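Predict the 3D structure for this chain.
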Amino acid sequence: MSSPDSLFPVLRRDIAGQSIESIVQQYGTPCYIYDMATIAQKVADLKAFDVIRYAQKACSNIAILDRLRRLGVVVDAVSAGEVQRALSAGYDPKTNPHSIVYTADVFDHEALTIIKKLGLHVNCGSPDMIEQLGRAVPGSSVTLRINPGFGHGHSQKTNTGGPQSKHGIWHDQIDECLRLADLHNIVITGLHMHIGSGTDLEHLSQVCDALEKIALQIGRTLTTISAGGGLPVPYRQGQSYVDLDRYYHLWDQTRNRLASVFGHPLRLEIEPGRYLVAESGFLVAEIRSVKKMGENTFYLLDAGFNDLARPILYGAYHPISICHRGHQPSDKDLIEVVVGGPLCESGDIFTQEEGGFVAKRQLPVAKVGDLLVLEVAGAYGFVMSSNYNGRFRTPELLIENGSIHCIRARETYDDLIRGEQIPPPPKA
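Done. Predicted structure below.
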């Protein structure tokens, strides 16, 4: 695997061997571009696990889901809409292991209806879900998502464990869950923990011990344990990947100890989202203004936080590169700049830190018309985009085997107002 320090050039001419200028000439800006070869490599990284279950909320385009299905990856769905996306991508809900698992902390009525209709397996994040599923579909099998009482992540907003997190069943409520399961003839066949996104090996390894203790409390009805997600990817120089061999070994030891106690084998799942898609994705925008504001130089783009919300939400850092058009300054001609978008919000800044503090970035000298690439943007990028300020959502493009496929067309004004209607004027 490449060193993270080699992943982030400040000048870029192509993505996956395809000229950025040529892509933009055909599809315009802003646009999201995904490299399928990167996704396939990330799947291969996790091949030691029995089941790779993709958390599709990270990037849910049905073309991506289709390709992951063809690579043997199953999916997690957190809503009825995500269930339907998985079906559209060819997933069969009747397979074993479950190709679609519904994971949430609550059921809305639409979700419970589709779960009952399709007989979907559910990963329950609250005791109330066990009771509601028991009434709707008695005799089901379920997985329990447990909050072990601690969490960790790249941001407090992505921390999914501990008492301040809404996620999962609190670790000392297992007896209540067992009682509700018995009441409705529900069998607990799986156990799942996820403490946060972008965490580290030290905190991830603590989950093994916590899950093992809960598993022994539940007993031998368990047939599957899930390591959850949260595997980090490097967004900046100096950050690193988790040692996957060591991580798998920790979970394999846990699985084997439980299998010895229960007297039957256990399937080991992992539930990556960001890890599979983040590094495959690029948001390409055009620089539309170079502005001096006091001591600051701004590169203002035709993409804003409606296209990529992670910086304004989490103070998230994305590597940035420049693609010059019609001129080629040296990559040594770097200046400090602030990168922002077109929205009428002061927070529409891509180079900011958590808390909204504006930061500067060392980037090549550029001018209006040059292209700027926000990198490692494949996870929680397009899926969190919006039509704020009346903006059209971008196209999504997939590069695969040297070909470029448009997997989502750029929105139009008709898309923008679809579903809206003006009622008749009130009578005088």
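The first helix runs from residue 20 to 27.
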